[in-house]
Amino acid sequence: MSRDYRLLVKNAKQVVLVCSRGEKYLTQHGMQDLSVIENGSVVIGRDGLIKAVGPAETIAAQFADASFDKVINATGMCVLPGLVDAHTHPVWAGDRVHEFAMKLAGASYMDVHRAGGGIHFTVEHTRAASSSELLASLRDRLVRMQRAGTTLVECKSGYGLELQTELKMLQVIEEARRTLPINISSTYCGAHAVPRGKTVAEATENILQVQLPRLREHMEAGTLKVNNIDVFCEQGVFDLGSTRSILKAGKDLGLNINFHGDELHPMNSAQLGAELGALAISHLEEVTDQGIRAMAKAQTAAVLLPTTAYILRLPQPRARDMLEAGVIVALGSDFNPNAYCCSMPIVMHLACVNMRMSMSEALAAATINAAYALGCSNTHGSLEVDKHGDLLVLSSPRWEHLIYQLGGHQELIGYVVVKGNVV
Ligand code: NIG
Ligand code: FE
């Protein structure tokens, strides 16, 4: 075995593994009882994978003869898994700050949408933008997320609503994946809204007959890697029937189902997701008890988005009811022009204060469970041997500072590490 390793993080006051028995996800009981090592160290190999994690003395003895490309002395500091953001819309052009004023003055999300703002405004600007403009702004946003501790992020298309722009967005995401350290799970979201002047039936037909077949060609040729399929299942957007046919077609392509449901109205999206074997459903502010039970049974994760409920003053997602029913609860920032938040620490803070999650539950939701929602929890989401060496080193003596502090995270997060490299 090689004696050369990429990184040693030693003598941390706390190493929060999150879980340590190869769990794919955690439900309520496990989320309340995270694995933590007091005074621990972590070793990451040159392949970027975790080689050892344990008590500092054990690691020191075991690796006494080893050499490391880099050593971080984490005395008095904490180590946590890199954060996972399970829901973002980070590729777009056109500033929508003016809509925030409209919403503060009382307009609802759908009032703005119907007035030609919202997604339609962004679609117009994103169609007109060049790939290089979109890539430049995507990079800036991903770097901001990374500085706030995110090391794996889901990125959606969905501001094209026609073949050319949807492909442009997915290619931009692919280019970011190739050139930036942050891990990306990409999502085709061509059914994010019904294009202006089209009916739901026409939009659905276009996705099924034009967009998905071209996507298949690209995926088969290896020119695009796409992981998930998403639909905005909502009154006035895609109804249950069209959502079902689009998600099923995506699943046939090998994509994970991960969609927007039960956000503004109860649509029985949760039941549909459970029926189709969805890996995750996002939002769920209006989910019913029956929907919650169906998701728990189907092991479909609930990706809760506290920023959206906060900005739109929606009812809070029922995190406690979901946890008690055994649902796999995950978190996402929903970064988009409506909810402009790149920070998972702020998302966790809001989840605790507004959705009444505990700090341990919020951290599990933003690591192992968010990784599960993206089909990546075998490689990401906890500090376990053979997983990716993605971690954060906090300058505080207790890990809870990451959630407790509302802002100032750049000073708190001393290092962000992806596959053993400080980024
Ligand atoms: O998740 N609900 C639908 N989509 C986004 C909003 C996108 C937008 O307003 O541009 C969301 O909140
Ligand atoms: Fe969204």
Structure description:
One of its GO terms (molecular function) is metal ion binding. One of its GO terms (biological process) is L-histidine catabolic process to glutamate and formamide. This protein is of the alpha/beta class. It folds into two domains: 4-81 and 383-422, Urease, subunit C, domain 1 (Roll), CATH 2.30.40.10; 83-373, TIM Barrel, CATH 3.20.20.140. Helix content is 39%, strand content 23%. The chain has 18 helices and 16 strands. The strands form two sheets. Strands 1, 2, 3, 4, 5, 14, 15 and 16 form an eight-stranded mixed β-sheet that branches. Helix 8 links the parallel strand 8 (183-191) and strand 9. The protein is globular and about 70 Å long. 56% of the residues are buried.
Please specify the SSE layout and strand pairing:
Elements: E1 4-18, H1 28-31, E2 35-45, E3 50-55, H2 56-62, E4 67-73, E5 78-81, E6 83-85, H3 97-104, H4 109-114, H5 119-128, H6 131-147, E7 150-156, H7 163-179, E8 183-191, H8 200-221, E9 228-233, H9 240-252, E10 256-261, H10 269-276, E11 280-283, H11 289-298, E12 301-304, H12 306-311, H13 319-324, E13 329-331, H14 344-355, H15 359-365, H16 368-373, E14 391-394, H17 401-404, H18 409-412, E15 413-418, E16 421-422
Parallel strand pairs: 1-4, 1-5, 6-7, 7-8, 8-9, 9-10, 10-11, 11-12, 12-13
Antiparallel strand pairs: 1-2, 2-3, 5-14, 14-15, 15-16
This protein binds N-(iminomethyl)-L-glutamic acid and fe (iii) ion.
Fe (iii) ion binds next to loops.
Pfam families: Amidohydro_3
Protein name: Probable imidazolonepropionase
InterPro entries: Amidohydro_3, HutI, Metal-dep_hydrolase_composite, Metal_Hydrolase
